[in-house]
Amino acid sequence: MNSTWTLAVFDASVAAILINAGATKIIAPVPLLRASAEVLAAPGRLGESLVRGFGGVELAVAVTLLVRPARLSAAIATTVLGVCFITAGLVGVRRGSSVPCGCFGGSSRQPLGWAN
């Protein structure tokens, strides 16, 4: 019984982080676009629709984490998102990112790096 509550609290916590991150990307994609352009050393921008789409995926995974029958698929999707975040953070560290990515809301002033 105790492990069920622990899992529910953990899933809800991860879902809250994903909801915050996803909503931020949908509402204000520009900071992540700037940080991505710097880290990827790309002349162009990724595109607002791509960033908003990624935010939509984060929201969908967050909601799915809270639905008991879909928890396993949501856990797999969360792992894939985590690998994406780790990769972006490591690339940011390697390239010396200095532009705040805004990944976790307007108060997020960290560039792509260890915080991700």
Explain the overall architecture.
- Helices cover 69% and strands 0% of the residues.
- The protein has helices at 2-27, 30-40, 48-65, 71-95.
- With 116 residues, it is mainly alpha-helical.
- It contains four helices and no strands.
Concise summary:
With 116 residues, the protein is mainly α. The chain contains 4 helices and no strands. Helices cover 69% and strands 0% of the residues.
Q: Which oligomerization state do the chains in this entry correspond to?
A: single chain
- Uncertain segments are none
What is the 3D shape? elongated
Through-space gap between termini = 33 Å
Itemize the secondary structure elements and their pairings:
Elements: H1 2-27, H2 30-40, H3 48-65, H4 71-95
Helix pairs in contact: 1-3, 3-4
Keywords:
116 residues, mainly alpha, 4 helices
